[in-house]
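User: Hey, my collaborator sent me this sequence without any context and asked if I could get a structure. I don't really work with proteins. Can you help?
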Amino acid sequence: MASAARRYNVRDTIMDYFERKRNRLRDFDYSSYGAYFVTICTMDKQCILSHVHRQRDDFTPPQIVLTDVGHVAEREILRFSKIYPAVTVDRYVIMPNHIHMILFIENIENETAAPPSLSRMIQQFKGAVTKQIGRSVWQRSFHDHILRDGEELQRYYTYLSDNPALWALDEYYTEECA
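Assistant: No problem. I've predicted the 3D structure and written it out in structure-token form, which is a compact way to encode the shape of the chain:
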């Protein structure tokens, strides 16, 4: 009996060790008003959303050319404000294998229902794109960062606008996407 109890405790310790890292801040209300930077990745870094088209000269910034899947994703991004009146997608960039967005959740006084959580909105976004293209292309979960002040917001604006030009240095870059 003692050995079974010991095995159970060892198993619990191992399961605790391998428990998935929490992506969200504990006890934070992700439906509360504020600014959020969100990154949504494709499964296995598949380069199916866009292509970064470099210009022949070094002076013209590269252009993002959306694929069919990228166009579906863009349409759904532009629908955020229609689906969630308190939500605005301020800026976004659709890279070959990921999407970055800056979302604002507004504090609307006369709104009868609070917006859903950020997780719920991203889940619905992924579901809408999946339904339209007929297959799931998304990595599980997403990355987010709560933007706490104007200086931080400006840094992320710069990051989004520079992302295509710095694509080869991006952490999500793969040779397949070159």
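In plain terms: Helices lie at 2-17, 68-83, 118-133, 150-162. You can pass these tokens on to your collaborator as they are.
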